[in-house]
Write a structure and sequence with these properties.
Blueprint (H helix, E strand, L loop, with lengths): L19 H36 L15 H12 L9 E11 L3 E11 L12 E10 L9 E6 L15 H17 L3
Antiparallel strand pairs: 1-2, 2-3, 3-4
C-alpha cells in the first residue's frame, strides 16, 4: 500500500435554493440598506433645510441710540423687533417693562415678552412662555452709540442677540408643553 486510500465520490442531488441562514442574511442586508437609505434621506433633508435658512438672513431692526432711549421707547423697540420673528398667527404676546437695575458702569432695563395661545374655550391660557430682554445703557458711552440688547427664554440659558439668532417657534412650544406636563402632575 502506498498510503493513499480510494474514495468513491458519489454525486447527490443538492437543493440549490438558498438556505434559511442565507435568507436571513439577505433580509438583514435589505433591512440595513433601508435603514441606510433613511439615514441618508434625513441627512440630505437637514442639509437642504440648513442651506435654505442660510439664504434667509436673520431679521433685525434699527435700534435707537443711548441719547434717544427711554424705558417706553425700549419697550416699543422690543415690540417692533418681536414682530420680525416668524410665528403662527395663533400666538399672542405683550411686552412689559419689569425693572431698571443700576449697575456700576451701566443701567440694565429688563423687559418681559409673554407669549400664549388663547382659544375660544380658554381665552386666558393657564400657562405662558416668556422671553426676557435686557437693554444695557452704558453710563460713559456717547449719546449717538446704539443700545446693547440681549434676550433669553425662560428655562433656557442661551443668551441671544438681535440679528445673530433666528427665532424658533419651537422654543415657545417646548416651554408651554413643559409647563402643561408639570401642571398635570400636580393634583389640585
Amino acid at each position: 500500500m502506498d498510503g493513499s486510500k480510494n474514495f468513491n465520490i458519489q454525486k447527490m442531488d443538492v437543493d440549490q435554493s438558498p438556505t434559511s441562514q442565507e435568507t436571513d442574511k439577505e433580509e438583514d442586508n435589505v433591512d440595513v440598506n433601508e435603514l441606510a437609505l433613511e439615514i441618508v434621506k434625513n441627512a440630505i433633508r437637514a442639509a437642504v433645510q440648513s442651506m435654505e435658512e442660510a439664504e434667509k438672513p436673520t431679521k433685525s431692526i434699527k435700534w435707537i441710540t443711548h441719547g434717544e432711549f427711554t424705558a417706553e421707547r425700549g419697550r416699543k423697540q422690543i415690540e417692533e423687533f418681536v414682530l420680525t420673528w416668524e410665528y403662527q398667527d395663533r400666538w399672542v404676546h405683550y411686552t412689559q417693562f419689569i425693572e431698571r437695575e443700576d449697575r456700576i458702569h451701566s443701567y440694565h432695563y429688563i423687559y418681559c415678552v409673554r407669549w400664549s395661545i388663547p382659544t375660544a374655550k380658554r381665552p386666558m391660557p393657564p400657562v405662558t412662555a416668556s422671553a426676557f430682554f435686557t437693554i444695557k445703557i452704558t453710563k460713559n458711552k456717547p449719546p449717538d452709540m446704539p443700545i446693547e440688547i440681549s434676550y433669553i427664554f425662560e428655562g433656557l440659558s442661551l443668551v441671544h442677540r438681535p440679528g445673530m439668532t433666528r427665532f424658533r417657534e419651537k422654543w415657545l412650544r417646548d416651554i408651554i408643553e413643559a409647563k402643561n406636563i408639570l401642571m398635570e402632575s400636580i393634583p389640585f
